[in-house]
């Protein structure tokens, strides 16, 4: 008797595609609803429309909508209460240190106000980070910082400059050898890139701040923590001037 060969297990490709589509849909609905809240369409402490209304507005199923609402709940934007409905939480409860939420907020916030808030955050962190980097860099992190600085020197247009500038600032945070600062850099990366691009376009030439970046780099490489801190503060002072100008 000839035994039939065992067939390989069948993959439910239709199910996989449907799951991928549903995932994309719930992500899109989460972004649209979060953007509406962050923009002020739904005020803090207000009650969102009922599920049926939201399903109709977004053209999605109850499953997709509920998954989107769970996403926004995890980000601190909303909360559901029995017999009350889904309520927008007060602003202090919003987790704006969530990468998605910060990115969405940056797109709807008043541009100058948001740029200044990001600048304040940078001024609190980056000068001290530069001093830490000067004291704690390794051969590997210095090579990465050196490469970023070299890319800034070699940049021939705004796009090349912004990529290198972002790489430089992320490199400073990584060189601190403080694992708590690295996720912070990754968190603000998307919004920082937009700010760096704006600053480059506002300058007389895109690489107008090369000398200030070089001063930071040379102080870090020389392991001069005080000079690195002062140089980064000076660089950020130039950045603030361009934002306010």
UniProtKB/TrEMBL annotation:
User: PROSITE patterns from the entry?
Assistant: HTH_GNTR
Which keywords does this chain's UniProt record carry?
Answer: DNA-binding, Transcription, Transcription regulation
A single Gene Ontology MF term assigned here is:
DNA binding
Q: Which SMART domains match?
A: FCD (SM00895), HTH_GNTR (SM00345)
Q: Where is this region: Disordered?
A: 1-20
What are the residue boundaries of the HTH gntR-type domain, all occurrences included? 23-91
The keyword Coiled coil is assigned to this record: no
Q: Which PANTHER family match?
A: GNTR FAMILY REGULATORY PROTEIN, TRANSCRIPTIONAL REGULATOR, GNTR FAMILY
The protein in question is named Transcriptional regulator, GntR family
């Amino acid at each position: 008797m000839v035994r039939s060969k065992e067939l390989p297990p069948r993959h439910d490709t239709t199910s996989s595609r449907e799951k991928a589509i549903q995932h994309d849909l719930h992500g899109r609905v989460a972004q649209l609803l979060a953007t509406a809240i962050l923009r002020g369409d739904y005020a803090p402490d207000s009650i969102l429309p009922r599920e049926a209304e939201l399903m109709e507005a977004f053209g999605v199923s109850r499953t997709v909508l509920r998954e989107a609402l769970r996403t926004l709940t995890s980000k601190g934007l909303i909360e559901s209460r029995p017999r009350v409905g889904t309520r927008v939480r007060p602003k202090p409860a919003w987790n704006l240190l969530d990468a998605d939420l910060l990115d969405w907020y940056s797109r709807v916030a008043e541009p100058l106000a948001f740029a200044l808030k990001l600048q304040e955050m940078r001024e609190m962190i980056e000068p001290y980070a530069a001093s830490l980097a000067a004291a704690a860099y390794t051969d590997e992190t210095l090579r990465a910082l050196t490469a970023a600085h070299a890319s800034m020197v070699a940049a021939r247009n705004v796009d090349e400059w912004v990529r290198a500038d972002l790489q430089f600032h992320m490199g400073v945070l990584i060189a601190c050898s403080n694992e708590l600062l690295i996720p912070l850099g990754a968190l603000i990366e998307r919004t920082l890139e937009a700010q760096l691009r704006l600053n480059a376009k506002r300058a007389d030439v895109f690489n107008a701040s090369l000398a200030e970046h070089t001063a930071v780099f040379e102080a870090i490489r020389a392991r001069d923590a005080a000079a690195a801190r002062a140089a980064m503060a000076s660089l950020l002072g130039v950045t603030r001037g361009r934002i306010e100008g």
